[in-house]
Amino acid sequence: MYGDQDSGFFPRMVGPPKDFLRGSVNNRPFRPGGLEDSQSSERVLPEGVSSGQWVQELLNGGPVQTVPPSFKQSLDLGDLMPYPQTWNVYEDQSSHGNASDSTLSIQFDDLLKKAWEEDAFSELERDDHTAESESLKAEAEPEANKGIETDATVLDEILSSAKTAILTEEAITGNSNKQLRKEGWATKGDSQDIADRFYDLVPDMAIEFPFELDNFQKEAICCLEKGESVFVAAHTSAGKTVVAEYAFALATKHCTRAVYTAPIKTISNQKYRDFCGKFDVGLLTGDVSIRPEASCLIMTTEILRSMLYRGADIIRDIEWVIFDEVHYVNDVERGVVWEEVIIMLPRHINFVLLSATVPNTFEFADWIGRTKQKEIRVTGTAKRPVPLEHCLFYSGELYKVCENEVFIPKGIKDAKDSQKKKNSNAVSVAPKQLTGSSAHQDGNKSQKHEAHSRGKQNKHSSAKDLGKSSYSGNSQNNGAFRRSAASNWLLLINKLSKKSLLPVVVFCFSKNYCDRCADALTGTDLTSSSEKSEIRVFCDKAFSRLKGSDRNLPQVLRVQSLLHRGIGVHHAGLLPIVKEVVEMLFCRGVIKVLFSTETFAMGVNAPARTVVFDALRKFDGKEFRQLLPGEYTQMAGRAGRRGLDKTGTVVVMCRDEVPDESDLRRVIVGSATRLESQFRLTYIMILHLLRVEELKVEDMLKRSFAEFHAQKKLPEKQQLLMLKRALPIKNIECIKCESAIEDYYDLYMEANECNSKMSEAVMQSPNAQNFLVQGRVVVMKAETGIDNLLGVVLKGPSDTNRQYIVLVIKSEIPPPEKNMVSIGKKSSDPSQGYFIAPKSKRGFEEEFYRKPSFRKGSVVIKIELPYHGVAAGVGYEVKGFDNKEFLCICDSKIKIDQFRLLEDGNKAAFSQTVQQLLDLKSNGNKYPPALDPIKDLKLKDAELVETYYKWTSLLQKMSANKCHGCVKLEEHMKLAREIKKHKKDLKDLEFQMSDEALLQMPAFQGRIDVLKEIGCIDEDLVVQIKGRVACEMNSGEELICTVCLFENQFEELEPEEAVAIMSAFVFQQKNTSAPSLTPKLAKAKQRLYDTAIRLGELQAQYNLQIDPEEYAQENLKFGLVEVVYEWAKGTPFAEICELTDVPEGLIVRTIVRLDETCREFKNAAAIMGNSALHKKMDLASNAIKRDIVFAASLYVTGV
């Protein structure tokens, strides 16, 4: 096993005991594993250290070196006294027998290099041994050659024995490459083979289990014994925790530590209770620290991340980190924490990853292995320990639609037939409600408007008072709802009871709806007298730790009344102690029906006989949507108790209509949600990483799961780049084009881009069409060539032909037909050109014939289009063009004779026309000036006018370029295109391999600029005192908290007022009743809100995708300011609950988190040197820490 490594040149001394567990912002984090081969993490040895150069200088009488490497200056030691010393110098024998190449080398160079690369502590331990061995080496120098031969022999023996050991291990474990399926760094072995020989492979288990292990458990344990990391993917209740327990047992056996991380505090508390009797266990959460010296620590993932960033010394002792519920990495808000922790863990720590079944297990494991440079063994099972059957409940009957992962269409058909029969036989049908798959409109509206449905007056009302708030969005009164709900649930409960399918967990997607459904079952009693007695005794014992007034809270009394009848509710709005009572009683089996939100499936390991879905739609905070297959599987997995039930039953409630078969298939047997990266940059992450020279922020970005595929392909891209650089580049051999073709190509591409922007708008405008008349000089786009064509409009569009007839000059001259000169005769071959005969050989008609000018009527085109010819030494062509093919309208107009050109095809007329076009070229420009876009074309769009001017300017530059008029221009342009593409490919590959290609790089640059502007870092990216304070802020938005502290916004506030305003940092519910604030609190609230707006505007200024108003509202929620203020003043909990419509559970959660915020602000005050603020935060923390809010967890203290 590797030891821990410090990040930096010098080893870090162990810190004070108070920082052993949590670390300190002054500590450097340990070097993350997997960075050993990266360029950014290589230790740069000072020049001359490994070559012995400085020793040679010293031997030659040079000055001693007094400045330590990486230091700017040294201590003034005064004049050094000379000390006689003998230097052992030997001749280097590594020159393969070539005497002429032999050199003198200082014997201890290698030791010096080693001293730089290894920790000083290990060096100090070996000082005596090293000195002794060096002495022996000096004495044995005359026999150097013999010693080398002996060393080689010993080395051969070591390698031989190591190879034998490896082969033996492969033979025993089946761990050869032939038997491993390897995908990158993720490997998968033969579970059956390992299971068959398990007790031979692991004869002395660290812990014995009272049951036979499954194959995947045996494979995982075998890997743990060999010190390998494992990824276990299996369904809920499949036994993944066995692997975690074995890692705990190994840590205990090896006298190291193991850390169990969970995404939810409830899971941490429950696991603490489960492991407490088996191992030496400690618990670390935001507000609880129990036995931190234990060898097995259970904590939330955020706590572990904080330890890593703060360089806690306890990291040195950790051998295993167990990540439970790894699929939580998909969580938008907190998924980034998993990626940060995995990237930051040192290389000596091994992984145990426990996850539900996901499609891309190998991909995720490969990312972890590639990031940490260690193989990850993937194991698990897709088999459920208790098979599930899925049913629809409609009109009092259960219809089986899926069993053993096989869909049953007959069940759907029967349910649909029942729906049709019911509808046809119904005498009166209520207006059809929108149900989607199986939801009803009432449920949807209740979820969406849940916060508003609980008023201040009726929040604690009993079932008979619930009529004050309407569950549905229509005029349905509460009595009707209660009767309808009770009828539906009684039908289902009776059905399940007859089939012995209780206890049941009913998943609803609204806290309010859970309460209302439970309260609707007023006359239902599901418990026996003995169970009632057990419930009463348990509740009395659990609630006895509360003070008198807290025992009589409306919620406590209401829940106790439900529990006595075997009915429970479980959601985030419950008080923590009430939730724990419900969970424990459910695990005991005395609660028969539990109405719960989906958090019960994630946070509590409490399987039931049956699971019921009230709906297959949920509101996710933004919109109503169908359940994802992964969400359905997670909740459905709670059905079926291992060892008690042969099958688990999952029921989908159908009220007014049966879901479509396609929707049910997708949800029930659809593919689970893939693990996807939710990595995002935070200011705290940047500030922590800027304190570590060897781990840049770019390194963190590269190692994120989001960049995994791009980084994985880097070696291929590197090879492709080398191949492309080795390709020979074609040269253009042309006097004209060789030096100017690339410039010409750039002009051409830029002109095309401009033209595409404005040609359609300009050329199709009415004013432009008015100029396109006969005789107008234009520039046309060539069909195949690169060069543009100068031409003249011969005829405009007509009813029969919508094209313009234009004569254009070709730059190339068609080759003459062999032994033949064409004099005015039109060839049937369009590729054959026309040539002008000498004047002495021209006919009279050709030279002097003119058609009578008095010819009237419209011109009839008698020449065959396209019409080719040669005149004045250049080729020309007459053909039809669409208006989209015009590139430019020139300000010139020439005289033409339509009849002679289009009807007669007179060569003299064509010659005259071509000559006029050639005469228009002046000052070396190929094209005449274009029409003015403002004066002539009357364009009013400023951007369009600017583009037009730019485009005409580019055309002029093209005509002035050397390449213009080159006979082989088209061929040269193709070569130029290839050269440009080659250069672009090289540039793109270099960019893709650079840090600039990282997805989050623009956001990183913007955030760096923001931190500089605020003063958290300086221009050299050195973290300042503001940055150190920001590193302490984990519970609130770091920038707002930091600026608030440095602006001393709490100076004028009392401790109770300060902690009340601070509640805005941690409170999470958006829609609440408006608090009633004192003028002082209102002023402080507005000041803090203005600070957030200012910071939002600053971030938007640096191109971060942030809306200042949304930023302020998202990070500051003032809904509990009044409540916390009264609580800090000593008001009883029952009274503060009447001040708001926020559920009691959220109030407690906010105040508990607020205590953690007070500790963070207190630490920040110590860094700032603000003793007044430090004292104020201490008083504020003491003011809120009392009574039911900080009642100890039943999981921790026991009942």
From TrEMBL:
Record's keyword terms, sorted: ATP-binding, Cytoplasm, Helicase, Hydrolase, Nucleotide-binding, RNA-binding
InterPro entries named in the record: Beta-barrel_MTR4, DEAD/DEAH_box_helicase_dom, Helicase_ATP-bd, Helicase_C-like, MTR4-like_stalk, P-loop_NTPase, RNA-DNA_Helicase, SKI2-like
Residue ranges of domain Helicase ATP-binding in the record: 221-376
Localization per Swiss-Prot or TrEMBL: Cytoplasm
Major subcellular site: cytoplasm
Domain Helicase C-terminal, chain residue ranges per copy: 492-690
This protein's name: DExH-box ATP-dependent RNA helicase DExH11-like isoform X3
